[in-house]
Amino acid sequence: MHVSFQQLRAFASVARYGSFTRAAIALHTSQSALSSRIAQLEKSIGATLFDRSTRSVRLTRIARDLLPSVERILGDTDALVGQTKDISAGIAGRVVMAALPSISATALPPAISQFLRENPRISLVLRDALAEEMRDMLRNDEVDFAISSPIVGDNSFEFTLLTTDRMAAVFPRKHPLHRVASLKLEQLIGYPLILMDRSSSVRHVIEDALRDKGRLAQPAFEVAFMSTAIGMVRAGLGVTVLPTASLEVQSATDLGVRNFADRALVRQIGIVKRRGRSMTPAVEKFCAFLLSDSRRSRRRSV
Question: Fewer CB near the terminus (10 Å): N or C of the chain?
Fold first, then answer.
Protein backbone atom coordinates (compact mmCIF):
# COMPACT_ATOMS: atom_id res chain seq x y z
CA MET A 1 0.00 0.00 0.00
CA HIS A 2 1.42 3.36 -1.06
CA VAL A 3 -0.03 6.49 0.51
CA SER A 4 1.43 9.87 -0.35
CA PHE A 5 1.53 13.05 1.70
CA GLN A 6 -0.43 14.83 -1.06
CA GLN A 7 -3.21 12.26 -0.80
CA LEU A 8 -3.47 12.73 2.97
CA ARG A 9 -3.50 16.51 2.54
CA ALA A 10 -6.26 16.21 -0.06
CA PHE A 11 -8.35 14.01 2.26
CA ALA A 12 -7.97 16.38 5.21
CA SER A 13 -8.82 19.42 3.09
CA VAL A 14 -12.01 17.93 1.67
CA ALA A 15 -13.00 16.85 5.17
CA ARG A 16 -12.34 20.35 6.51
CA TYR A 17 -14.20 22.27 3.78
CA GLY A 18 -16.93 19.70 3.03
CA SER A 19 -16.46 20.46 -0.65
CA PHE A 20 -14.12 19.31 -3.39
CA THR A 21 -14.34 22.72 -5.02
CA ARG A 22 -13.36 24.72 -1.92
CA ALA A 23 -10.67 22.20 -0.99
CA ALA A 24 -9.15 22.44 -4.50
CA ILE A 25 -9.03 26.24 -4.23
CA ALA A 26 -7.38 26.04 -0.80
CA LEU A 27 -4.75 23.63 -2.12
CA HIS A 28 -4.18 25.67 -5.31
CA THR A 29 -4.94 22.69 -7.53
CA SER A 30 -7.64 21.63 -9.94
CA GLN A 31 -10.74 19.78 -8.78
CA SER A 32 -9.93 16.88 -11.12
CA ALA A 33 -6.42 16.53 -9.64
CA LEU A 34 -7.88 16.61 -6.14
CA SER A 35 -10.48 13.97 -7.01
CA SER A 36 -7.73 11.79 -8.49
CA ARG A 37 -5.72 11.95 -5.25
CA ILE A 38 -8.76 10.98 -3.19
CA ALA A 39 -9.51 8.08 -5.54
CA GLN A 40 -5.90 6.86 -5.29
CA LEU A 41 -6.02 7.06 -1.50
CA GLU A 42 -9.31 5.13 -1.36
CA LYS A 43 -7.84 2.47 -3.63
CA SER A 44 -4.70 2.20 -1.49
CA ILE A 45 -6.57 1.73 1.80
CA GLY A 46 -9.43 -0.28 0.23
CA ALA A 47 -12.18 1.90 1.67
CA THR A 48 -14.55 4.70 0.61
CA LEU A 49 -13.83 7.96 2.40
CA PHE A 50 -16.64 10.21 1.18
CA ASP A 51 -20.31 9.76 0.37
CA ARG A 52 -20.85 12.14 -2.52
CA SER A 53 -24.08 13.65 -3.80
CA THR A 54 -24.87 16.55 -6.05
CA ARG A 55 -25.33 18.75 -2.99
CA SER A 56 -22.88 17.56 -0.37
CA VAL A 57 -19.82 15.56 0.51
CA ARG A 58 -19.93 13.57 3.75
CA LEU A 59 -17.26 11.56 5.53
CA THR A 60 -17.90 7.85 5.85
CA ARG A 61 -17.49 6.18 9.23
CA ILE A 62 -14.04 4.95 8.27
CA ALA A 63 -13.06 8.48 7.22
CA ARG A 64 -14.22 9.89 10.58
CA ASP A 65 -12.11 7.32 12.38
CA LEU A 66 -9.05 8.06 10.22
CA LEU A 67 -9.26 11.86 10.23
CA PRO A 68 -7.74 12.56 13.70
CA SER A 69 -4.70 10.40 12.90
CA VAL A 70 -4.28 12.00 9.48
CA GLU A 71 -4.51 15.51 10.94
CA ARG A 72 -1.94 14.58 13.58
CA ILE A 73 0.43 13.28 10.89
CA LEU A 74 -0.03 16.42 8.81
CA GLY A 75 0.45 18.66 11.84
CA ASP A 76 3.63 16.86 12.90
CA THR A 77 4.95 17.01 9.36
CA ASP A 78 4.22 20.72 9.04
CA ALA A 79 5.93 21.34 12.38
CA LEU A 80 8.94 19.31 11.27
CA VAL A 81 9.20 21.21 8.00
CA GLY A 82 8.92 24.53 9.83
CA GLN A 83 11.53 23.50 12.37
CA THR A 84 13.88 22.32 9.63
CA LYS A 85 13.53 25.66 7.84
CA ASP A 86 14.29 27.50 11.07
CA ILE A 87 17.35 25.33 11.69
CA SER A 88 18.55 25.89 8.12
CA ALA A 89 18.10 29.63 8.59
CA GLY A 90 20.02 29.63 11.88
CA ILE A 91 16.95 30.73 13.83
CA ALA A 92 16.82 27.52 15.86
CA GLY A 93 19.24 24.73 16.60
CA ARG A 94 21.66 23.26 19.11
CA VAL A 95 25.31 24.07 19.74
CA VAL A 96 27.56 21.73 21.73
CA MET A 97 30.99 23.13 22.59
CA ALA A 98 33.92 22.39 24.85
CA ALA A 99 36.07 25.08 26.42
CA LEU A 100 39.03 25.41 28.74
CA PRO A 101 37.94 25.86 32.37
CA SER A 102 39.68 29.26 32.56
CA ILE A 103 37.61 30.47 29.61
CA SER A 104 34.41 28.75 30.75
CA ALA A 105 34.53 30.64 34.04
CA THR A 106 35.38 34.12 32.73
CA ALA A 107 34.92 35.32 29.16
CA LEU A 108 32.45 32.73 27.91
CA PRO A 109 29.41 33.11 30.25
CA PRO A 110 28.74 36.78 29.34
CA ALA A 111 29.07 35.94 25.64
CA ILE A 112 26.66 33.02 25.97
CA SER A 113 24.18 35.18 27.88
CA GLN A 114 24.15 37.89 25.22
CA PHE A 115 23.90 35.38 22.36
CA LEU A 116 20.92 33.59 23.96
CA ARG A 117 19.11 36.89 24.49
CA GLU A 118 19.44 37.54 20.76
CA ASN A 119 18.78 33.92 19.71
CA PRO A 120 16.33 32.39 22.22
CA ARG A 121 15.54 29.36 20.04
CA ILE A 122 19.14 28.18 19.88
CA SER A 123 20.27 25.99 22.79
CA LEU A 124 23.89 25.92 23.95
CA VAL A 125 25.65 23.08 25.75
CA LEU A 126 29.03 23.85 27.37
CA ARG A 127 31.48 21.19 28.50
CA ASP A 128 34.51 22.53 30.34
CA ALA A 129 37.56 20.34 29.85
CA LEU A 130 41.33 20.35 29.58
CA ALA A 131 43.08 20.58 26.22
CA GLU A 132 43.72 16.87 25.69
CA GLU A 133 40.19 15.96 26.73
CA MET A 134 38.79 18.40 24.16
CA ARG A 135 40.96 16.86 21.48
CA ASP A 136 39.30 13.50 22.09
CA MET A 137 35.85 15.13 22.18
CA LEU A 138 36.47 16.66 18.77
CA ARG A 139 37.79 13.43 17.28
CA ASN A 140 34.76 11.50 18.57
CA ASP A 141 32.28 14.16 17.35
CA GLU A 142 31.06 14.72 20.91
CA VAL A 143 31.22 18.48 20.41
CA ASP A 144 30.82 20.80 17.43
CA PHE A 145 33.95 22.79 18.28
CA ALA A 146 36.24 23.69 21.15
CA ILE A 147 37.60 26.92 22.58
CA SER A 148 41.20 26.12 23.33
CA SER A 149 44.80 26.61 22.31
CA PRO A 150 45.89 25.34 18.88
CA ILE A 151 46.36 21.60 18.55
CA VAL A 152 49.95 21.41 17.39
CA GLY A 153 51.16 18.75 14.97
CA ASP A 154 47.74 17.54 13.81
CA ASN A 155 46.47 18.87 10.48
CA SER A 156 43.03 17.36 11.00
CA PHE A 157 42.14 20.40 13.12
CA GLU A 158 41.80 24.05 12.15
CA PHE A 159 42.26 26.99 14.52
CA THR A 160 40.76 30.49 14.42
CA LEU A 161 42.28 32.95 16.89
CA LEU A 162 39.97 34.74 19.33
CA THR A 163 42.40 36.23 21.84
CA THR A 164 45.76 35.82 23.55
CA ASP A 165 46.15 35.13 27.26
CA ARG A 166 49.32 36.30 29.05
CA MET A 167 50.98 34.16 31.70
CA ALA A 168 51.81 35.47 35.18
CA ALA A 169 53.74 34.17 38.17
CA VAL A 170 51.71 33.79 41.37
CA PHE A 171 53.52 33.66 44.73
CA PRO A 172 53.03 34.58 48.40
CA ARG A 173 53.14 38.30 49.14
CA LYS A 174 56.45 38.15 51.08
CA HIS A 175 58.17 35.98 48.50
CA PRO A 176 61.55 37.19 47.11
CA LEU A 177 60.02 37.38 43.61
CA HIS A 178 57.92 40.28 44.82
CA ARG A 179 61.07 42.47 44.73
CA VAL A 180 62.02 41.49 41.16
CA ALA A 181 61.44 44.45 38.86
CA SER A 182 61.53 42.58 35.53
CA LEU A 183 60.49 38.98 35.98
CA LYS A 184 61.77 36.24 33.67
CA LEU A 185 60.42 32.71 33.54
CA GLU A 186 63.80 31.11 34.23
CA GLN A 187 63.98 33.00 37.55
CA LEU A 188 61.30 30.68 38.88
CA ILE A 189 63.53 27.62 38.48
CA GLY A 190 65.21 28.25 41.84
CA TYR A 191 61.90 27.88 43.69
CA PRO A 192 59.50 24.94 44.12
CA LEU A 193 57.23 25.03 41.08
CA ILE A 194 53.54 24.17 41.17
CA LEU A 195 52.52 23.51 37.58
CA MET A 196 49.44 22.28 35.79
CA ASP A 197 49.68 18.67 34.66
CA ARG A 198 50.71 17.69 31.13
CA SER A 199 47.14 17.63 29.82
CA SER A 200 46.89 21.40 30.34
CA SER A 201 47.55 23.97 27.63
CA VAL A 202 49.19 26.20 30.27
CA ARG A 203 51.79 23.51 30.93
CA HIS A 204 52.60 23.30 27.22
CA VAL A 205 53.20 27.07 27.05
CA ILE A 206 55.57 26.97 30.03
CA GLU A 207 57.50 23.93 28.82
CA ASP A 208 57.90 25.38 25.32
CA ALA A 209 59.16 28.69 26.72
CA LEU A 210 61.67 26.96 29.02
CA ARG A 211 62.83 24.65 26.24
CA ASP A 212 63.61 27.70 24.10
CA LYS A 213 65.91 28.84 26.92
CA GLY A 214 67.55 25.44 27.27
CA ARG A 215 65.76 24.65 30.52
CA LEU A 216 63.44 21.88 31.62
CA ALA A 217 60.38 22.21 33.85
CA GLN A 218 60.86 20.16 37.01
CA PRO A 219 57.79 20.86 39.12
CA ALA A 220 57.61 20.06 42.79
CA PHE A 221 53.86 19.52 42.36
CA GLU A 222 51.58 18.87 39.39
CA VAL A 223 47.87 19.66 39.67
CA ALA A 224 44.82 19.34 37.44
CA PHE A 225 43.00 22.50 38.56
CA MET A 226 44.13 26.11 38.82
CA SER A 227 42.28 26.49 42.12
CA THR A 228 44.48 23.73 43.56
CA ALA A 229 47.61 25.53 42.40
CA ILE A 230 46.43 28.74 44.08
CA GLY A 231 45.65 26.87 47.29
CA MET A 232 49.14 25.36 47.35
CA VAL A 233 50.71 28.77 46.80
CA ARG A 234 48.70 30.12 49.74
CA ALA A 235 50.09 27.25 51.84
CA GLY A 236 53.63 28.33 50.98
CA LEU A 237 54.42 25.23 48.95
CA GLY A 238 55.85 27.10 45.97
CA VAL A 239 55.09 29.43 43.07
CA THR A 240 52.90 28.79 40.05
CA VAL A 241 52.34 30.16 36.56
CA LEU A 242 48.77 30.74 35.41
CA PRO A 243 46.95 32.81 32.76
CA THR A 244 46.11 36.33 33.89
CA ALA A 245 42.56 36.01 32.52
CA SER A 246 41.74 33.05 34.76
CA LEU A 247 39.25 33.58 37.57
CA GLU A 248 41.71 32.04 40.03
CA VAL A 249 44.36 34.69 39.31
CA GLN A 250 41.85 37.55 39.23
CA SER A 251 40.54 36.46 42.64
CA ALA A 252 43.98 35.97 44.25
CA THR A 253 44.11 39.45 45.79
CA ASP A 254 46.00 38.08 48.81
CA LEU A 255 48.88 36.83 46.66
CA GLY A 256 51.56 38.39 44.55
CA VAL A 257 50.86 38.33 40.80
CA ARG A 258 53.54 39.46 38.39
CA ASN A 259 53.49 39.45 34.58
CA PHE A 260 56.62 38.28 32.82
CA ALA A 261 58.90 40.69 30.97
CA ASP A 262 58.76 38.34 27.99
CA ARG A 263 55.54 39.42 26.28
CA ALA A 264 55.79 36.37 24.05
CA LEU A 265 54.88 34.18 27.03
CA VAL A 266 51.25 33.95 25.99
CA ARG A 267 48.64 31.35 25.29
CA GLN A 268 46.60 31.63 22.11
CA ILE A 269 42.89 30.99 22.59
CA GLY A 270 40.57 30.33 19.69
CA ILE A 271 37.99 28.15 17.99
CA VAL A 272 39.19 24.62 17.19
CA LYS A 273 37.22 22.55 14.65
CA ARG A 274 37.67 19.33 12.75
CA ARG A 275 38.97 20.24 9.32
CA GLY A 276 36.51 19.58 6.49
CA ARG A 277 33.50 19.09 8.78
CA SER A 278 30.39 21.08 7.92
CA MET A 279 28.78 23.03 10.75
CA THR A 280 25.09 23.65 11.31
CA PRO A 281 23.90 27.23 10.76
CA ALA A 282 23.43 27.61 14.53
CA VAL A 283 27.06 26.61 15.19
CA GLU A 284 28.31 28.91 12.43
CA LYS A 285 26.22 31.75 13.85
CA PHE A 286 27.61 31.32 17.36
CA CYS A 287 31.20 31.07 16.11
CA ALA A 288 30.71 34.26 14.10
CA PHE A 289 29.31 35.91 17.23
CA LEU A 290 32.38 34.87 19.26
CA LEU A 291 34.72 36.27 16.61
CA SER A 292 32.82 39.54 16.49
CA ASP A 293 32.76 39.75 20.30
CA SER A 294 36.52 39.14 20.48
CA ARG A 295 37.16 41.93 17.96
CA ARG A 296 35.04 44.32 20.03
CA SER A 297 36.97 43.35 23.18
CA ARG A 298 40.31 43.99 21.48
CA ARG A 299 39.17 47.42 20.31
CA ARG A 300 38.07 48.32 23.85
CA SER A 301 41.43 47.26 25.28
CA VAL A 302 43.44 49.41 22.85
Answer: C
Pick the CATH number of 163-266 from 2.40.160.40, 3.90.550.10, 3.40.190.10, 2.60.40.10: 3.40.190.10
Q: What is the pLDDT of residues 221-249, one digit of tens each?
A: 999 889 999 999 999 999 999 998 888 88
Considering the domain delimited by 93-158+280-301, tell me its CATH architecture.
3-Layer(aba) Sandwich (3.40)
The total of other beta-carbon atoms located within 10 Å of residue 181's CB is: 6
The fold for domain 5-88 equals: Arc Repressor Mutant, subunit A (1.10.10)
**DSSP readout, 197-249?**
-TTSHHHHHHHHHHHHTT-----SEEES-HHHHHHHHHTTS-EEEEETTSHHH
CA–CA gap between residue 293 and residue 282 (Å, rounded): 16
Note the pLDDT tens digit of each residue in 251-262.
888 999 998 887
Residue 196 exposed, middle or buried by CB count within 10 Å (0-12, 13-18, 19+): buried
Per-residue DSSP letter, 99: E
